[in-house]
Write a structure and sequence with these properties.
- By secondary structure, this protein is mainly β.
- It folds into three domains: about 5-55, no CATH class; about 70-105, no CATH class; about 105-165, no CATH class.
- It has one helix and twelve strands; from the N terminus they run ββαββββββββββ.
- The strands form six sheets. It has a two-stranded antiparallel sheet.
- A hairpin with a 5-residue loop joins strand 5 (about 70-75) and strand 6.
- The longest helix is centred in the first third of the chain and has 11 residues, at about 20-30.
- The termini are far apart.
- About 25% of the residues are buried.
């Protein structure tokens, strides 16, 4: 059941009719930078909330909170949900600059963004992994080894059958 303001005007269901929503905001005495959402203490009542409050979806017509994956959200200058910081910033990062998918990169475990955005682990003759933000050799292709133990060039040495690293 949606929220009713007692005026026959639904508020913050899906706000399909902005005119009705605005009329409800005026009836409640909301300021021009506020909108009507469900009162968390009394779901049968409406309450005026700031369009700069991420807990109520900023300036969008719906009242759902900003939920950005692995991020702490706030309302930007355009009254849209934006990323303040990744959570935790030591692990996650917003590499594509798109707030809608939050902090989409796990820079501690992603081989394409290992340690930083676009920090790709080498795939030279083997399979890399990203461990705690550092590239490591998972396995080398047959006939190759990581003789210098440098993950930046992965499995750099070609070895004949039976041959070992010097």
């Amino acid at each position: 059941m949606g929220l009713w303001l007692g005026l026959g005007l639904p508020a913050c269901t899906l706000a399909l009719d902005p005119d009705q929503l605005n009329a409800g905001a005026e009836a409640l005495g909301c300021a021009s930078d506020e909108k009507v959402c469900e009162d968390p203490l009394d779901p049968e009542r409406g309450v005026c909330v700031s369009q700069e409050d991420p807990e109520y979806g900023c300036g969008s017509e719906v009242c759902a909170p900003c939920e950005l994956r692995h991020a702490i959200a706030d309302c930007g200058n355009t009254q849209e949900c934006e990323i303040v910081t990744c959570d935790p910033p030591s692990r996650y990062h917003d590499c594509n600059g798109n707030p809608s998918d939050g902090c989409e990169v796990d820079k501690l475990n992603d081989v394409d963004n290992c340690g930083s955005c676009n920090g790709r682990c080498s795939q030279n003759n083997g399979t890399p992994a990203c461990s705690n933000g550092a590239c490591v050799v998972l396995v080398c292709m047959y006939g190759f080894e990581d003789c210098d133990m440098n993950p930046s060039n992965l499995c750099e040495t070609a070895l004949a059958p039976g041959e070992v690293c010097p």
